[in-house]
Amino acid sequence: MSVLINLSAVLDDARCFELVRRMRWPQSVRCPKCSGEHVVRNGHDETQPHRQRYLCNGCQLRFDDLSDTALAGHHQPLRVWILCLYFMGLNLSNRQIAQELSLNENDVQEMTKQLREGLAAKTPPVVLSGEVEIDEVYVVAGHKGNPAAVEKKAAKVDATD
C-alpha cells in the first residue's frame, strides 16, 4: 500500500517566493524594465504577504517577485504553480496533475499551457559563433523532397501494367 503525501501542505508561500527570487535573480534583484540593479524593497503585497514589492531607483518602475513572469496575474497560489511545474517535470499527465492538486482538468490544461509558453518565451535564443561543426547528415529524398520523381515513378508503373 502506497502512502500519498499532500505536497501542497508541505510547501509554504514563503519558501515558494524565496525559490522564485533565487531562480529569477541568482545574483541580486534587477529591474525587469531597465535591468538596473539599483533596486530597493518597497513593501509587500496586501493579499500575499511573502510577495515582495520593489522600486527601481533608475527608471522608477514598481514591480514585485512575479512581475513580467508566466506566474503573474493568476488566482492560484504560487505553491500550486510550483507544484504544477514539478509534476510537469515528472511527466505527469494533466489529468494526474489535476488529481494531485485537486483542480479542474481544464484549469490544469490552461496552467500547463501558460507555463510551457511562458518558459519558452523566456528562453534566450541560441546564437552560434566562430567555427561550427556538425556530424554527418542523412537526407532521404523521398516524395516529400521530390514529388515530381514520385509522380514519374507512378506513371512508369502504370505504363507497364
Describe the protein's architecture and organization.
- The chain is mainly alpha-helical and 161 residues long.
- Helices cover 42% and strands 9% of the residues.
- The protein is built from 6 helices and 3 strands; from the N terminus they run ααβββαααα.
- It has helices spanning 7-10, 13-24, 78-89, 94-101, 105-122, 147-160, and strands at 39-44, 52-56, 62-64.
- A 3-stranded antiparallel sheet has the order 1-2-3, with no helix packed on it.
- A hairpin with a 5-residue loop joins strand 2 (52-56) and strand 3.
- The longest helix is centred in the last third of the chain and has 18 residues, at 105-122.
- The protein starts with 6 loop residues before the first helix and ends with a helix.
- The relative contact order is 0.10.
- The model has no long low-confidence stretch (mean pLDDT 83).
Structure summarized in a few sentences:
The protein is mainly alpha-helical.
Which features does this protein show?
single chain; 161 residues; mainly alpha; three-stranded antiparallel sheet; 3 strands; 9% strand; elongated
